[in-house]
Design brief:
With 154 residues, this protein is mainly alpha-helical. The strands form two sheets. It has a two-stranded antiparallel sheet. Helix 1 packs across helix 4 and helix 2 packs across helix 6. The longest helix has 28 residues. The N and C termini lie far apart (75 Å).
């Protein structure tokens, strides 16, 4: 009989180069590519809306107000309080240093494999899909409120 595969956590690819005390080149490139997916307006920062889309793409829900405040206080942001690419990498470096499995989970959720290669060219653009879904949901909620208000006023 062959060896049984362990049911432990999946192997986490080397994300940090311990000699450099920073991401490996490949990990940095992947994280920058993920950042660019959510930087819809291409201003080099994630606005609150873009940050929410990113959080939904990773965890299925936006960051709460407290988490957003923590991000603004701990990582590089612009004068509007928007997370810069540098801040995004700082945030991931902190997470990866303590919980590399969490970073790998996020990378996998964005269409990469454990070797940090894209799984396929047909991977859905998570950021656009999430942003469009969020916008559609808000429009539907606004329409429902409008209809509810019209009914109540009659």
């Amino acid at each position: 009989m062959g060896k049984k595969k362990s049911s432990a956590q999946p192997k986490v690819n080397k994300l940090i180069d311990t000699d450099e005390d920073y991401f490996t080149e490949r990990a940095e490139a992947v994280l920058k590519e993920i950042f660019s997916r959510y930087d819809i307006d291409k201003d080099g920062c994630l606005s609150e809306k873009e940050l929410d889309a990113f959080a939904i793409g990773c965890n299925g829900k936006p960051f709460d107000a407290s988490s957003k405040q923590d991000i603004q206080e701990a990582f590089d942001v612009n004068d509007k309080g928007y997370l810069t690419e540098r801040g995004f990498l700082e945030m991931y470096f902190m997470q990866t240093s303590s919980e590399p499995q969490e970073t790998m989970k996020d990378i996998l959720a964005h269409g990469y494999d454990h070797s940090l290669n894209k799984k396929s060219d047909t991977t859905t653009d998570t950021a656009s899909t999430t942003t469009n879904t969020t916008t559609e949901t808000k429009k539907e909620e606004q329409q429902e409120e409008k209809e509810k208000s019209t009914v109540e006023n009659k």
